[in-house]
Design a protein that fits this description.
Carbamate kinase
């Protein structure tokens, strides 16, 4: 069993998952070690669950009223378009708003996971690589928020890659979703284009800020239709 206060801070079903190894998702009766693909995404979600639960524990022990709930327990639902897994925001609204309302009665901070949700068949499905920004937009949209703040390791969206182009580089204070997607390809290293496109679709602003420089205003990604 997981020991100490971390165990108390993780929902029971997540604690059970964290105790399992990859072999729990392999059919032990098969000579070919057949992998149950419906379980692979559940395994892939374990690191994200543990990270969020650990952060919540740190905040709680630092004196903050904080709790943790995984994105699937929060009510985020995954669906499909072709071969892609996407967030089903309309189907997620009722559950997410209800659970957030309940949790905020006793907490000031709620930590959840990105990267995955549960489909209508009850299976965990991941949204793919670099999908934390996308998940944040999905949960914010379902909760009724109009803005997401994304903390990165740079001050915002630059005209050129800030890690390789220093002199004369331009930091955008305000930029449109459309321009980020079509005219500033270096932004893809900072915010995933799928998240920007989804934010535009959900009529949502994105504020990109630097967690090493929290006083910086960063870059506001917006569009006239959002205003």
């Amino acid at each position: 069993m997981l020991e100490g206060s971390l165990e108390k801070n993780i929902p029971e079903q997540d604690a059970r998952m964290l105790e399992h190894s990859i072999m729990d998702f392999v059919n032990s009766d098969s000579d070919s070690n057949y992998v149950n693909l419906d379980s692979v995404d559940s395994y892939l979600s374990i690191g994200e669950r543990l990270s969020a639960a650990t952060c919540s524990l740190f905040l709680k022990e630092s004196g903050f009223r904080s709790t943790y709930i995984s994105s699937d327990e929060l009510g985020l639902i995954a669906t499909y378009t072709g071969n892609d897994v996407i967030a089903d925001v309309p189907s997620s609204i009722t559950a997410i708003r209800s659970r957030l309302s309940d949790l905020f009665r006793a907490n000031d901070l709620i930590l959840t996971t990105g990267f995955f949700a549960r489909d209508r068949f009850g299976n965990i499905r991941t949204f793919g690589r670099n999908s934390s920004d996308y998940s944040a937009v999905a949960i914010a949209a379902a909760s009724g928020s109009s803005k997401v703040i994304l903390y990165k390791d740079v001050d915002g969206i630059y005209q050129h890659d800030p890690k390789t182009f220093r002199d004369g580089n331009v930091l955008y204070k305000i930029i449109s979703h459309e321009k980020v997607l079509n005219e500033v390809p270096t932004s893809y290293k900072i915010v995933h284009p799928r998240a920007v496109s989804f934010a535009q679709e959900c009529r949502m602003d994105l504020q990109v800020k630097n967690y090493f420089n929290p006083l910086s205003e960063g870059t506001l990604i917006t569009s006239p239709s959002v205003r």
